[in-house]
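Exercise 7.
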Amino acid sequence: MSLSNFVKRIRDIMRNDAGINGDAQRIEQMAWMLFLKVYDAKEQDWDMDEDNYVSIIPENCRWRNWAIDDRSGNSMTGDTLLNFVNNTLFPTLKGLEVSKDTPIKKSIVKTTFEDANNYMKDGVLLRQVINIIDELDLGDYEESHAFGEIYETILKELQSAGSSGEFYTPRAVTDFMAKMIKPQIGERVADFACGTGGFLTSWLKELAPQVKTTDDQEKFDNSIYGIEKKQFPYMLCITNMLLHGIDVPKIYHDNSLLHDVLDYTEDDQFEVILMNPPYGGNEKNDVKNHFPSDLASSETADLFMSVIMYRLKRNGRAAVILPDGFLFGTDNAKVAIKKKLMNEFNLHTIIRMPHSVFAPYTSITTNILFFDHTKPTDDVWIYRLDMPDGYKNFSKTKPMELKHFDPAIEWWNDRKEINIDGFDKAKKYSKDFIVERNYNLDLCGYPHEEEEILPPKDLIQQYLEKRASLNAEIDRTLSQIIDILGIDLDVNMGRDEQ
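Solution. The predicted structure, written as tokens, is:
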């Protein structure tokens, strides 16, 4: 089939359905149908490769037995199709019997559909969408590979689909991070908030050229591990992995923050971690109970940093995206996390990214921290990646591309301090210098930055982070003054009250 207008054809049909409200619901609607189509293609392979293969999906609910329109006029459509999907297909797949002994490639069907929904209300339009999806020939290598690229454009649309943008990291960023982390056959990569699987696919793409033998292929197939809390991106990620040839995707529908970090053993650790932790969110107090008291931040990204440190193997490597608030934050939890990071890990490089990389989802400026579990930090290199020539902002029509990281890659391989017009663009800072700044890593910032009017949510988040840091600085300074003066505040306060 012609894949060039695949997404447009489906979008045009769904726009006429009263049940679809916005891009996020349209993509979610496509997701469960694409999953079943892709899974059915995989099952055809497993049928041939395995003796007596038995599907976990009952026969009447397998894509091949209800979705395919044989043009005989007998295929379900209209209210009949709608009734089947809502009252047979979804309840059946949500209720599949799964145990700890169920193979992952079968259990993913149930976990994929646990919280999935059918939003379409017009059975005729639903039939039209299903027919377009069924035209995909995933048994044809070239068409299957081409559809992998189309699927990436579907995921990219999440960036501008309201709050769903949190599940998608621009591919230029994930590809750059995977390239700099230098994957090796035999290593496993983890992403504990994997969204739609962008880091995992970039890892696979970077690792693929090293596959030379059947043993290499087996290690390649087992080299990814992901956890995703939310149902929608979990479904997209599973489908993404199946499309990339991973028959047994070790992707789990779970919350990485609901496990005691002190309980992790070496078996729970990974050679490589690539992540863009959710940030700007606040977790409930009971989540903090899973962390040592000094690391128990209320900021989601901080908690994920602790998870990463506890789950990175000795000699392992990590690349993590974090907002500016992590760099400049000097509240107690952030300082404790950065102290642990620099005392136990080698934080060797920070790449400061230009604004609008994640626009329009968020305007908060972000950074990439590269560190390894080899030794304590001695020095930290910080490099500022400037907006490319001719760009004022990244946008849907002018997105960030991998080539925009070329200056950072060139600098990475031949590190030198760079100062332009009196402003540091690249500089090496000693750990002692950073400790003196109370672990404030807000260095090599953007000079002459035009004042940007942020969306209310981002503005409030930035304000809260800066207020927390200022309060921490005031408390620290007051504490020093009190110590110098030898004042016993508790005694004085008691006397004032008498």
